[in-house]
Specification:
By secondary structure, the chain is mostly beta strands. The chain has 3 helices and 9 strands, in the order ββαββαβββββα. A 4-stranded antiparallel sheet has the order 3-8-5-4, covered by helices on one side. It has a 3-stranded mixed sheet with strand order 6-7-9, with no helix packed on it. A hairpin with a 2-residue loop joins strand 6 and strand 7. The radius of gyration is 16 Å and the shape is globular. The protein starts with a strand and ends with a helix.
Length: 159
């Protein structure tokens, strides 16, 4: 069972049952939310069907509807990454890579911070992604975060 800060995570299945309201900036097998994530930062991986129920109990993807995507856990896995509460709009999670390194699976993602004018409202960005399952014995999953904040270059400043 996947634990975050000592608490078991419950039904990510609820998140997988739901399709996103908007597909802007999403790829196939990826679901995003800006306002419906948990207040605290969390990340988890489901390598087995029984883990799936524990990944996103704390994520409330309200407002989503639609069909249930299937996940074949013999070939796929599910990763959930939530940034927690952010002070404004413009924050988002970008998946970067999933690399097998010996007995570890390193999930790399970036937190993109806003630039310019943004919504003045609390947001809770979250990403749910279906990935190919790594071969070999079941690895220990490690999450690695980078932060990107884009600053204007010289040409943009002159405008």
């Amino acid at each position: 069972m996947i634990l975050i800060r000592g608490f078991p995570l419950l039904p990510l299945a609820a998140a997988l049952v739901l399709a996103p309201v908007s597909s802007r900036g999403q790829e196939e097998g990826e679901w995003r939310t800006i306002y419906d994530g948990p207040k605290e930062a969390a990340h988890a991986a489901a390598l087995r069907p029984e883990d799936l129920l524990s990944v996103f109990a704390r994520v409330r993807f309200s407002g989503w509807g639609g069909g249930r995507p299937g996940v074949d856990f013999s070939q796929r896995m599910v990763v959930g990454i939530c940034l927690g509460t952010r002070p404004t709009g413009g924050y988002r999670v970008n998946f970067l890579s999933a690399d097998r390194e010996k007995e570890f699976l390193i999930i790399r993602y970036e937190e993109v911070r806003p630039r310019g004018f943004v919504t003045q409202a609390l947001t809770t960005p979250c990403l749910l992604k279906v990935l190919p399952r790594p071969g070999g014995p079941e690895p220990e999953v490690i999450f690695e975060r980078t932060i990107r904040q884009r600053f204007p270059n010289e040409a943009e400043r002159r405008r």
